[in-house]
Amino acid sequence: MTALADAPRPRRLRLRPTFTVAVAAIMLAAVFALAILGPLWPGFDPDTQNLFGAKIPPIQDWAHPFGTDPLGRDLFSRLAWASGVSILIALAAVAISACLGLALGLVAGWRGGWLDGLLMGVGNTQLAIPVVLLLIVLVAALGASTVLLVVLLGLTNWVAYGRLTRSLVLTLREQEFIVAAKTAGASDAWIILRHLLPNAVPKVLILAAFDTGVIVTIESSLSFLGLGVQPPVPSLGLMIAEGQRYLQTDPFLTVFPALAIFCLIGGIQFAGQGLAARPPSRGGR
Predict the structure, then answer these.
(1) Quick one: which of 43, 119, 125, 253 has the most CB atoms within 10 Å?
(2) Which CDD domains does the entry link to (predicted)?
(3) Residue 84, SS3 per DSSP
C-alpha cells in the first residue's frame, strides 16, 4: 500500500496558454479571412449555376479552387458567403442575449423581492426546455427566415447572462461603495448605470465569447434541418446537408463547410481556454 501511495501519479497534458491562444488565432484568422477577403477574390460568384461544370474536384480548376457543387456553383464563393452569414447571425444573436440578460439581471439582482422571483422563475422554466427543441417548434410555427432566426436565438439564450449578472449584483450591493452611494441619496438608476453596469459588463463579455460557439452550433444544426437560413442564401449547415448526398463520391462538398465550423467553434474555445488559464494580473495600488 505504501509503495502504491508513493508511486508518481500521471500528469495531465495541459496546453500552455500561449499555445492555445496561438492555435485560436490561426483557426479564427482562417475563417474570418475567408469571410472577409473571400468576396474580394477574382471571379467571386456564389449564385451562378453551370451544370456543365458541376462537381469539379478541388484544385483541378484554379477558377474554382475549392471545386464546384452539383449545380456548378463555385464552392469557394459559397463557403466564404456562408461563413460570413454564420458569423453575423452568431454575433447578432449573442448581442441580443447579452443585452437582454444584462438588463434583466441588473433589475432582478438590485430590486429583489417578487420581481427577482418572477424573472428568475421565467428563466428557470426556460432552462427546463431544451433550446434546440424550443427553436424547432417556434421556427416551424412562425416560419423560417434569417431575421426571425436571429431574434429567436437571442431571446432563448439570455438566461445564463441574467443569472450571472444577478449573482454579481447580489455580491456588489453590499460593498462599501454601493452603500456609500445609497447613503448619499443616489437613485437606483444612477447606482445601476454608474456602479453595477461597469462591473458586470466584463463578465458578460467573457460569457458571450464562449456562447458565440454555441450559437454557431445551434444555427448550423437548424440550417442542416432546413429550419434556419433558407436558399439561395448559403449557410454552413445547409451546405453540409446538400453535400451529404454525395459524401461517398464527392466528400469535399461536406468536408469544407465542416472544417469551417470546426475552425470557428474550436478557435473560440481555444481562445477562451487560453485566456482563462492566464494568471490574474497583480496590479499595485
Answers:
(1) 253
(2) TM_PBP2 (cd06261)
(3) helix
